[in-house]
Amino acid sequence: QVQLVESGGGLVQAGGSLRLSCAASGGTFRQYAMGWFRQAPGKDREFVAAISYFSGTPSYADSVKGRFAISRDNAKKIVILDMNSLKPEDTAVYYCAARNGPTIATVDYWGQGTQVTVFS
Length: 120
Description:
Blueprint: E1 3-7, E2 10-13, E3 18-25, E4 32-39, E5 46-51, E6 58-60, E7 68-73, E8 78-83, E9 92-100, E10 109-110, E11 114-119
């Protein structure tokens, strides 16, 4: 069983930056693909970014490419999402996700979520 705990959400003005962190416990972290998803009010949960378990190859939703960066530290068992040039449409609850496998094609574990609010 893997537990995921997000932190770093908050309120930020448009154009600003935030860093989200996800700390994992349980399981063998390096064997898990990690990712971030988000859910805005009244909308479905959507993919934001992911990083593979072996090569650390990142992937991003088109809406965040060039603005967000995902990284992982296998020794510390954390995954980071650096969010820059934030827009009001980035407002959502952000969820950390993990999958026991090379990519985040499906999700085995979810965090509890952290709120990100971007105001103009």
